[in-house]
Specification:
The structure holds two protein chains of two kinds. Helix content of chain A is about 0%, strand content about 55%. By secondary structure, chain A is mainly β. Chain A starts with a strand and ends with a strand. In chain A, the strands form two sheets. In chain A, strands 2, 4, 5, 6, 9, 10 and 11 form a seven-stranded mixed β-sheet that branches. Chain A has a four-stranded antiparallel β-sheet with strand order 1-3-8-7, with no helix packed on it. Chain B is mainly beta. Chain B is built from no helices and eleven strands. In chain B, β4 and β5 form a beta hairpin. Classes of the chains: A mainly beta, B mainly beta.
Chain lengths: ~110, ~110
């Protein structure tokens, strides 16, 4: 079974802090994704990566950046956290090819105060 | 904004009743995927539909892909309390990379025992 592990289940940060959310997958998947989930808005794609050091913007990249230095690890960075970034963040991975299903981690609930 | 519309947003049923959620895209999709998210959990892949008019069944769940490949539905026969959760459809919309899955906002199903 694919395992996608997110480093923290819950995180509380202060406005202006730099925040790192880490995600690791153990199935040698090429593709990795960061979504945020908010009530009434569903899942929205922030960034994705289809190869090491490659990244593409999703639908809501503003205020975020990402890093993929190794195939198994995909990091989401909030350069200066703001209260409107309080959300559930979900990492996912998929194998090569555009039609492969996503495997999600358990999520990180981030609160910015 | 999101280009995958899903209705209804909420559905409450009595155990044993049927349930259907509908998904519509503004553009033709190469494929559509369905996910289920249990309360407090993360989305889990259920199925992928690729062909025009395709129908797939998983026990009490029936998935359909429209002839024009712009709409899809998930029908659950005789719901059980284990069916509770949010059901999402997702497809590669907006042109460009198939890696970029866009999710509908989901349908939250609650079942009264």
């Amino acid at each position: 079974d694919v395992k996608v592990t997110q480093s923290s289940r819950y995180l509380v940060k202060r406005t202006g802090e730099k925040v790192f959310l880490e995600c690791v997958q153990d199935m040698d998947h090429e593709n990795m994704f960061w979504y945020r989930q908010d009530p009434g808005l569903g899942l929205r794609l922030i960034y994705f990566s289809y190869d090491v050091k490659m990244k593409e913007k999703g639908d809501i990249p503003e205020g975020y950046s990402v890093s993929r230095e190794k195939k198994e690890r995909f990091s989401l960075i909030l350069e200066s956290a703001s209260t409107n970034q309080t959300s559930m963040y979900l990492c996912a991975s998929s194998s090569t090819g555009g039609n492969s299903p996503l495997h999600f981690g358990n999520g990180t609930r981030l609160t910015v105060t | 904004g999101q280009q995958v519309m899903q209705i209804p947003q909420y559905q409450h049923v009595q155990e044993g009743e049927d349930f259907t959620t509908y998904c519509n895209s503004s553009t033709t999709l190469s494929n559509i995927q369905w996910y289920k998210q249990r309360p407090g959990g993360h989305p889990v892949f259920l199925i992928q539909l690729v062909k025009s008019g395709e129908v797939k069944k998983q026990k009490r769940l029936t998935f359909q892909f429209g002839e024009a490949k712009k709409n899809s539905s998930l029908h659950i026969t005789a719901t059980q309390t284990t069916d509770v959760g949010t059901y999402f459809c997702a497809g590669p919309v907006g042109g460009g990379s198939n890696y970029k899955l866009t999710f509908g906002k989901g349908t939250l199903l609650t079942v009264n025992p």
